[in-house]
């Protein structure tokens, strides 16, 4: 194969539809933060919604079109954590959510990241798959931010805020504990 054809083939394998959606989500994340800082909540809502849609679509399309790639497996969780972490920091800083909720969400992600790092260092290449509770937690976390942004435009959800915050905190803590148990089990396994 000619060198330019080889480069083209590798690029087309890397730059497939799911990976393009993930890159769009990475680009939308700082745009969302900028809109939030400038108090342009409609723009923030649109950027966050588009980012959430790309999050939902990239995995489905990767499975459907059989376009799973190593780069996608690396970029997707980075894009997810960047969107979630930045959204919880900026909404706490702007006073839309209580700071304690942001601390819980980000602490869980840091714990998971440190656990994966320790498993990688001591066990080498252990795969941790998302649990159903972990996926539900991400849905609740994204949903909480989404509803806060919707309320910034329509102001009809305020009575539900405490319940949304408590639900988000509860599932975040529960899934954090679940991942901790899974991580300890993997760390103590003989494999």
UniProtKB/TrEMBL annotation:
<comment type="pathway">
    <text>Phospholipid metabolism; phosphatidylglycerol biosynthesis; phosphatidylglycerol from CDP-diacylglycerol: step 1/2.</text>
</comment>
<dbReference type="GO" id="GO:0046474">
    <property type="term" value="P:glycerophospholipid biosynthetic process"/>
</dbReference>
<dbReference type="GO" id="GO:0016020">
    <property type="term" value="C:membrane"/>
</dbReference>
<dbReference type="InterPro" id="IPR048254">
    <property type="entry name" value="CDP_ALCOHOL_P_TRANSF_CS"/>
</dbReference>
<feature type="transmembrane region" description="Helical">
    <location>
        <begin position="163"/>
        <end position="187"/>
    </location>
</feature>
<dbReference type="InterPro" id="IPR050324">
    <property type="entry name" value="CDP-alcohol_PTase-I"/>
</dbReference>
<feature type="transmembrane region" description="Helical">
    <location>
        <begin position="12"/>
        <end position="35"/>
    </location>
</feature>
<keyword id="KW-0444">Lipid biosynthesis</keyword>
<keyword id="KW-1208">Phospholipid metabolism</keyword>
<dbReference type="Pfam" id="PF01066">
    <property type="entry name" value="CDP-OH_P_transf"/>
</dbReference>
<dbReference type="InterPro" id="IPR043130">
    <property type="entry name" value="CDP-OH_PTrfase_TM_dom"/>
</dbReference>
<dbReference type="GO" id="GO:0008444">
    <property type="term" value="F:CDP-diacylglycerol-glycerol-3-phosphate 3-phosphatidyltransferase activity"/>
</dbReference>
<keyword id="KW-1133">Transmembrane helix</keyword>
<keyword id="KW-0808">Transferase</keyword>
<feature type="transmembrane region" description="Helical">
    <location>
        <begin position="41"/>
        <end position="61"/>
    </location>
</feature>
<dbReference type="InterPro" id="IPR004570">
    <property type="entry name" value="Phosphatidylglycerol_P_synth"/>
</dbReference>
<keyword id="KW-0594">Phospholipid biosynthesis</keyword>
<comment type="similarity">
    <text>Belongs to the CDP-alcohol phosphatidyltransferase class-I family.</text>
</comment>
<feature type="transmembrane region" description="Helical">
    <location>
        <begin position="138"/>
        <end position="157"/>
    </location>
</feature>
<keyword id="KW-0443">Lipid metabolism</keyword>
<dbReference type="InterPro" id="IPR000462">
    <property type="entry name" value="CDP-OH_P_trans"/>
</dbReference>
<keyword id="KW-0812">Transmembrane</keyword>
<protein>
    <recommendedName>
        <fullName>CDP-diacylglycerol--glycerol-3-phosphate 3-phosphatidyltransferase</fullName>
        <ecNumber>2.7.8.5</ecNumber>
    </recommendedName>
</protein>
<keyword id="KW-0472">Membrane</keyword>
<feature type="transmembrane region" description="Helical">
    <location>
        <begin position="110"/>
        <end position="126"/>
    </location>
</feature>
């Amino acid at each position: 194969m000619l060198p330019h054809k080889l480069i083209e083939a590798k690029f087309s394998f890397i730059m497939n539809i799911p990976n393009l959606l993930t890159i769009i989500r990475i680009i939308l994340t700082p745009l969302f933060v900028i809109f939030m800082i400038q108090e342009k909540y409609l723009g923030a809502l649109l950027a966050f919604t588009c980012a959430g849609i790309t999050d939902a679509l990239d995995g489905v399309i990767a499975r459907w079109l059989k376009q799973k790639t190593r780069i996608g497996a690396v970029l997707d969780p980075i894009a997810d954590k960047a969107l979630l972490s930045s959204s919880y920091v900026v909404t706490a800083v702007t006073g839309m959510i209580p700071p304690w909720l942001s601390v819980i969400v980000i602490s869980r992600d840091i714990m998971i990241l440190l656990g994966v790092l320790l498993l990688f260092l001591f066990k080498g290449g252990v795969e941790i798959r998302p649990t159903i509770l972990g996926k539900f937690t991400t849905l609740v976390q994204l949903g909480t931010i989404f509803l806060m942004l919707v309320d910034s435009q329509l102001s009809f959800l305020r009575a539900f805020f405490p319940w949304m915050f408590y639900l988000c905190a509860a599932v975040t803590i529960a899934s954090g504990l679940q991942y901790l148990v899974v991580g300890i089990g993997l760390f103590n396994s003989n494999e």
